[in-house]
């Protein structure tokens, strides 16, 4: 049985307009779309304080919802400015705490490399920092890693090089299907064994892609993410219908 989640960024337009908060989003995903899995985007987290996180966890538990992925911005590992790097590190630690409180199974923290290449210094620093994050996350059954959605992380060769450099079983990827700057014909499948969660949409998840990634070793869930930014309820429903069709969804789908 395939697990489908709706990713929080799919409603970033409503967040910007002030017409949706995280609690509203959970209600919508559970009762409008009938799903029990949500990929939380930390843009929707109003706080990482214990009292707020406890309220979110209560809302998740009341709806029997799971969090296969907590995708975090503003806490990338690398920044050229040392002070900014430390600021993002502290934010990453706060989001690791949030992942534990919310029961997230994976945590997306990006490399932070804006250009399409990476230096040896950057790679060594990033690998060491991820190793630290992985040790923290494994204590509560979570994995940590980047998403291939900007800069050097869209290079599959560099992604595989980082897997080797981090060398920790809790280092896993949030794989954004087909978002690569090279090797697009094989990159998803090459990285599939290292992925904890994926982002897909109606255009990228085909029957052929489902078969090839599964054959390559991917066994996680399928997170629907789109960037429409407007009319998001309708667009999300259309995306969900298309993904369900590919996955052969059944009434027992979670």
TrEMBL record:
<keyword id="KW-0413">Isomerase</keyword>
<dbReference type="GO" id="GO:0016853">
    <property type="term" value="F:isomerase activity"/>
</dbReference>
<dbReference type="Pfam" id="PF01261">
    <property type="entry name" value="AP_endonuc_2"/>
</dbReference>
<feature type="domain" description="Xylose isomerase-like TIM barrel">
    <location>
        <begin position="33"/>
        <end position="202"/>
    </location>
</feature>
<dbReference type="InterPro" id="IPR050312">
    <property type="entry name" value="IolE/XylAMocC-like"/>
</dbReference>
<dbReference type="InterPro" id="IPR013022">
    <property type="entry name" value="Xyl_isomerase-like_TIM-brl"/>
</dbReference>
<protein>
    <submittedName>
        <fullName>Sugar phosphate isomerase/epimerase</fullName>
    </submittedName>
</protein>
<dbReference type="InterPro" id="IPR036237">
    <property type="entry name" value="Xyl_isomerase-like_sf"/>
</dbReference>
